């Protein structure tokens, strides 16, 4: 008999005596962890508090001529009042009123997603009245990861889609969510970038380009905002489900998020085109206190699902004796 087994037998035989001793011990550990374990958990977690001001130290809070050009040129911090005001006034489009019917190409298809919605509802136990962000939202119907949630489960949210043709169709659907014809910024400040206009697979190419380069019709200059700025402009600091599919720039978008300021429960990230690779996303999200729940891999989905570990701050290092 191994030592481990004999300990287990001892535990079973002397349960009642042990429970009181162990519970006192546990309380002690939770309330008063040794300096060693505190030190270790700090080292392994590597939580870096994120400074929203770091990009733009010195820009005054009150800007007299607050324009998008000013915001871009000064790389305004994510929560700058000028930036939030611009998003609110010029970019956020209101949801269609609840009595206006949806305009769908295939109204009988309840869930056009490639499996994401099933996973979301399962993990969130059929949550109703939730809040989502979907980027890219495409035309708001084809492969939509949020239509079912909005239509059947009374969710609402933010639909983000920079590609002009797709957005035109999205705007006509009468979705009950806010829409933005913008990209999520790859930096912690607003940026104007060139965008490949190919429908469905459109993506950010690089910096803003000149008129002559726009003339060939393949590129557009589009305005990007940090995800956190959009949420703040909307007055929202929690999200139940974030669907992120931006054709390769997913990790860069995730890295703009000040995780200690916003609560995102569930995140589905398309990993397939991410330049840094699948494990770079997984490692990064783990550092932010997320559990990798698994992948949704169907013919049309290549998503990895992360769920916020709400017990993360309570965890302390322990040894798993079974290993
Ligand atoms: C969620 O809804 C589905 C379909 O209506 C049902 O089969 C499932 O049991 C529900 N799950 C929970 C956790 O309530
Ligand atoms: C959604 O809201 C409508 C109207 O308030 C209500 O009748 C319906 O039961 C709700 N659906 C769910 C799934 O909660
Ligand atoms: C996120 O949610 C948790 C649990 O509900 C709460 O304790 C925490 O304060 C929230 N954080 C933010 C930034 O809202």
TrEMBL record:
This is Methyltransferase FkbM domain-containing protein. InterPro entries: EGF_Rcpt_Signaling_Reg, FkbM_mtfrase, SAM-dependent_MTases_sf. Residues 136-290 form the Methyltransferase FkbM domain. GO terms for cellular component: endoplasmic reticulum membrane; Golgi apparatus; late endosome membrane; plasma membrane. The chain crosses the membrane at residues 12-32. Keywords: Membrane, Transmembrane, Transmembrane helix. PANTHER family: PROTEIN STAR. One of its GO terms (biological process) is endosomal transport. It comes from the Eukaryota. It comes from Daphnia pulex.
